Write a sequence for this structure.
């Protein structure tokens, strides 16, 4: 059985991925770990070269699924040196010590959001430090001479306590407390359920494909529409959600507005179909 090392395994996507791959030989790694009986877990800070060398020497992975990243988009803008350390140097540390199959999870933030949705061969032009560091990571992976997959996704969602990054948690928890929230109506994407994305990663391993792929949910919508869909799926009061525009929010980092990822290539190569978002939300709720 191939040995699979997962970085950032205790974040939003990592939690689902470890669940989906729990019958494989996986090593779940993270800066802070949550131990379980189901698979091996070990501390690994990817920005620490010595830590990477030690773990790789002991475990000798055949496949790496690289999820670990500084994902706080405004945080990256405020502290670009930390973003660079984790997203660029961290990726470099992993590549320097590895010779097997490398699966790098990337983002639509490598695009500027002027004319999405995007195909794999569309021109990249990141407009934030987060997007730039993720693109540097992509470039390093592509320039390495190992077997690689870059899988770009967008607006990854789950209902999960373990992450600060969950949009669903924020919407659901606010509405449960009957708090009014404002959600942007000018950012367009095809949000992606973590379980669905995790299954796609497992098929990538099973079919042993390589190259650059996009994957996202089966519908393109704006964030306000998505929040309203979440509210109705959880039986909560969607009238508490009010529209706002991105410029009104004065966020520190710029966001791609007209974004989203076309999934034609991966659907054809893997024989899969992107999951409609309402179906993903219904399945997610049925598992709670
Ligand atoms: N969230 C999205 O909408 C989205 C969209 C497209 C692509 N992606 C990509 O998908 C991947 C997973 O994202 P996610 O949504 O699961 O984010 P997440 O919940 O923030 O998970 C990222 C994980 O990386 C860990 N990490 C940060 N710095 C580290 C370091 N130096 N060493 C080891 N681990 C470190 C974090 O741990 P701490 O909690 O300790 O910081 C966290 O557990 C990322 O590569 C991201 O760029 C995300």
């Amino acid at each position: 059985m191939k040995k699979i090392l997962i970085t950032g395994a205790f974040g939003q996507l990592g939690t689902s991925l470890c669940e989906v791959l729990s019958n494989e030989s996986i090593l779940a790694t993270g800066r802070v770990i949550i131990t379980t009986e189901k698979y091996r877990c070990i501390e690994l800070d990817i920005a620490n070269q010595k830590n990477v060398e030690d773990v790789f020497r002991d475990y000798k992975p055949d496949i790496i699924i690289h999820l670990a990243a500084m994902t706080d988009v405004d945080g990256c803008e405020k502290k670009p040196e930390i973003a660079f350390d984790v997203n660029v140097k961290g990726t470099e540390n992993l590549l320097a010590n590895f010779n097997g199959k490398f699966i790098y999870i990337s983002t639509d933030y490598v695009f500027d959001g002027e004319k999405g949705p995007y195909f794999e061969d569309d021109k990249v032009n990141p407009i934030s430090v987060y997007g730039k560091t993720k693109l540097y990571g992509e470039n390093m992976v592509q320039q390495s001479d190992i077997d690689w997959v870059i899988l770009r996704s967008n607006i990854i969602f789950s209902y999960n306590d373990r992450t600060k990054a969950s949009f669903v948690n924020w919407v659901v928890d606010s509405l449960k407390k009957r708090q009014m929230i404002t959600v942007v109506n000018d950012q367009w994407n095809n949000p992606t359920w973590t379980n669905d994305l995790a299954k796609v990663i497992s098929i990538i391993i099973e079919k042993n494909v390589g190259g650059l792929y996009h994957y996202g949910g089966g519908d393109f919508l704006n964030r306000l529409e998505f929040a309203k869909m979440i509210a109705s799926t959880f039986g909560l009061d969607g009238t508490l959600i009010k529209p706002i525009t991105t410029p009104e929010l004065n966020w520190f980092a710029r966001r791609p507005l007209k974004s989203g990822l076309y999934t034609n290539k991966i659907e054809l190569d893997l024989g899969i179909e992107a999951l409609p978002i309402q179906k993903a939300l219904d399945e997610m709720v049925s598992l709670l």
